[in-house]
Design goal:
Length: 189
């Protein structure tokens, strides 16, 4: 993958764009449906999933992104971005929408509040070279995983990194560490 979008409506998109650039990819900030043209993949960043859901609708991006995902465009969702990809959201707002391309149930903020943010050294299947420094900020807990979903890492018995086909999702913020291995994994997939 070379030309990769980063949904830039709200939240922690900038460091994702920098990580893609550092790996030699061309990062495109996505704010309008036109920005999706020619993209080979899309990163959905952390932030606030309720706000992003609303902005996706206001910008007219929700349906076109849903279409591209249905066609099989690879996606990497982190924290709020993972919530946006999930099939089921618990403790969400009633009007909050998600793309439903990752067969998991997520419970918002279930790792605790902002003050309960933490960093963990997480062992990731297939990554090699030691644990990944994972930063959790008001992170969602995955409490159900469908049959087609591969769990690549867990913390305290909860899956925190998973993959279903071309969809990769992390409950944490990989862009906040200097470790680029997960972005690399996404680009190479
Ligand atoms: N708690 C946020 C939400 O529900 C996610 C937090 C994050 O992305 N760091 O959208």
């Amino acid at each position: 993958m070379h030309k990769v979008g980063v949904l830039a409506l709200q939240g922690a998109w900038q460091r994702h764009a920098e990580a893609l650039g550092a790996l030699g990819a061309h990062a495109v900030e996505v704010r309008t449906p036109e920005d999706l043209s020619g993209l080979e993949g899309l990163i959905l960043p952390g932030g606030e999933s309720t706000t992003m859901s609303r902005l996706l609708e206001l910008s007219g991006l929700f349906e076109p992104v849903a279409e591209r995902l249905a066609e099989g465009m690879p996606a990497f969702g982190t924290c709020a971005g993972m919530i946006l990809l999930a099939g089921e959201i618990r403790d969400g707002r009633p009007d909050q929408r998600s793309f439903g391309v990752l067969d998991v149930s997520v419970r918002r903020n279930a790792f605790g509040r902002q003050v309960d943010s933490f960093e963990a050294d997480v062992a990731v299947d297939g990554l090699g070279g030691g644990g990944f420094p994972a930063v959790f900020i008001r992170a969602p807990v995955i409490d159900r995983v469908g049959d087609g979903v591969e769990v690549l890492a867990s913390v305290g018995g909860h899956p925190v990194l998973c993959r279903q086909g071309r969809v990769l999702a992390a409950a944490f913020h990989p862009e906040l560490s200097d470790d680029l291995r997960l972005h690399q994994l996404f680009l190479e997939d």
